[in-house]
Amino acid sequence: MMMNKVAKTVVGFFLLTLLFVFSCQKKSEESVDTIIEGKATIYVDESILPIIEDEQAVFETQYNAKLQLVPKSENEVLNAMFNDTAAIAVLTRNLTKEELNAFQAKKINPKITPFATDAVALIRSKTSKDTLIELQDVIDFINGKSINSIKGLVFDNANSSTVRYLSDLVGIPVNNQKNVFSLKTNQEVIKYVAEHDGMIGVVGINWIFQPPLDLQESVDKVNVLGVKGTKAATFAFPTQDNLAQGKYPLARHLYFVNCQGYSGLGMGFASFLGGERGQRIILKSGLVPERVPSRKIMIRDKITKDKN
Length: 308
Fold this sequence. Notes:
This protein is α/β, with parallel strands linked by helices.
């Protein structure tokens, strides 16, 4: 009788051990990703979310992969990376020397892939017929000078890349200045500016080129302004041609930052962004790809007429 109890105990323990090992193995297998399959989380600067969503949709269709995009402000994305919450991110600037040193101190060597040229766009309600603005006027307004054509500047987020971009340009923190306001997202900025005459919105141009369906009505109510640089003789709109030729004064590069440290989906998605198909998606979006995709031209010796 005693032996039966011991045998049952041993068998029960053995089964529990097998179940535990199988569970751990299954969990481990589910968490593993390769360059073309598995799951990965990518933190994305919110000002460029639409184009990354387009790239994600095609990448997931082509491969057995699932990418979870987490839109955040620039500061939030960087903090997540330094706190080891995020291993993959998309930014509107390269990492600084100090940031690279901080990663290397943690034995992390970020793989950085530039993949497109984007623009910080200035927008105004269509109730105003003025579609041009001088960058010097924006700088003067931030510095406290009264500019008749500007009632206020509206940014997406106090910690965003657009705030950092203008702050670097002006040389002072713009979000601490009079009549400079921050909301939460680019969508909120577009909606606000569409209904408030005289306010200038500062957004990523991709939100204008490819707005969500529920934002289209607000986009139709704003004008993207042509900007005259401080040393330019003419105004330039953030068109694809002007971005490619360096004529628009508020252009910026986009970067994919991969800190995974192994050949996972971060590497795969980076290769996709910089490859032929990913660059074509950039081109179609209205932004400027890092490398212009090739075009195949068919040359025929003879031209034949179709028979009716």
